[in-house]
Amino acid sequence: METVTIKLLAERLKLSTATISKALGDSHEISEVTKKRVFDLAKELNYVPNAYASSLRKNKSKTIAVLIPEVADSFFSIALNGIEEVAIEKGYHTLIYLTHEKLEREKAILSELLYGRVDGALMSVSSETDSFEHIEDFGKKLPVVFFDRVASAPATAKITTNDFECGYLATKHLIEAGCKRIVMLSISKSLSIISERSSGFQKAVADHQLDPATCEVVNCIGEGKTVHTTLTSILQGNNRPDGIIATVERLTTDIYLVCQQLGLQIPDDVKVVCFSNQASAVILNPSLTTITQPAFEMGRAAAKALLKRLKNPYINLEEESEIIPSVLTVRSSTAGKNSTF
Predict the structure, then answer these.
(1) One MF term in GO for this entry (predicted)?
(2) Are 187 and 221 in contact, with CB atoms under 8 Å apart?
(3) Residue 94 burial (CB < 10 Å; 0-12/13-18/19+)?
(4) Do 310 and 119 meet the contact criterion of CB atoms below 8 Å apart?
């Protein structure tokens, strides 16, 4: 069977190999009529491009890196699906790197990626990331796009959700459900998403004249036993909160376990809202009220912005930034005593 190459397509269509190559690459230099002729014949002959040879000629790996802090959080697993959908559609491979919420690992990964393994990177910064020089250095050589957890530098596309409004909305919902003493649980003193959610929380507390001394942002930094101990301390005593907002999904299990161990009933004794995309929220007992982020859409938007930049190095990546709204889904964890869901 004859191997179908660009040269063969050129001979059949009586065009130059350069024209065929540009047409297959969807170049603006080639008319739509000619592109259609090329695509139609390529499809008819089952032409498969040699991606490896193409990448060598263009000095491109056709691979992008994705840096995320963890995969246990369903937001990131869903966002990865959105990223993969776009990457596969455009003929790119993805390399997934976990920073495990560690700044030093984030620095090491970005440093290693500068040696030609990838054409660019998508990233959501770690909870420890409080300086951005390492990201700026990477951005000087390869394009980077942020999603969800963003850095103030370098100037690039940032795909986020409306974190301030969601912090406000979650707090307002608890206030309307009767809560007077509300705490927001934070996992970082530097993450942009936490500061935005915290600002929304504090604005809602002020707007509804609640006592800021009993409505505060509490650092719940760490994992495992540390988080469990912090939550136990918060939920013990006569002046315990009657409402909790968890800024990340992984705090949910500890909140439910500590309430169970202390004999506190959700939602009668304490109402709970969590920023979460977990599918199991609806089958928890009680079912969990969530701020659900558009994870898949954010992943898609981030990948599209980066691949657009890789196709055209002259675009302004900052102009590709998007804010995609999240949704409050009310369930039993914030219900009144006589409410049913």
Answers:
(1) transcription cis-regulatory region binding
(2) yes
(3) middle
(4) yes
CB 246 within 8 A of CB 170: no
Calpha distance 166→289 (Å, rounded) = 13
* Sequence-separated (6 or more) residues with CB below 8 Å from residue 160: 146, 147, 148, 150, 192, 193, 298, 321, 322, 323, 324
Give the three-class secondary structure for 311.
helix
What would the DSSP string read from start to end of 36-54? HHHHHHHHHTT----HHHH
Q: Which two structure tokens, joined as six digits, stand for 19?
A: 């024209």
Torsion of Cα atoms, 163 then 165 then 168 then 171, to 10°: -70
Q: Are 102 and 209 part of one and the same domain?
A: no
Q: List all residues 6 or more positions away from 169 whose beta carbon is below 8 Å from its beta carbon.
A: 200, 291, 328
Residues 170 and 281 in one domain: yes
* Residue 248 DSSP label: S
pLDDT per residue rounded down to tens, the chain (341 residues): 567 888 888 999 999 988 888 888 777 788 989 988 988 898 888 876 654 445 444 557 799 999 999 988 899 999 999 999 999 999 999 999 999 999 999 999 999 998 878 999 999 999 999 999 999 999 999 999 999 999 989 999 999 999 999 999 999 999 999 999 999 999 998 899 999 999 999 999 999 999 999 999 999 887 778 889 999 999 997 789 999 999 999 999 999 999 999 999 999 999 999 999 999 999 999 999 999 999 999 999 999 999 999 999 999 999 999 999 999 999 999 997 544 44
For residue 273, what is the DSSP state? E
15 lies in the same domain as 84: no
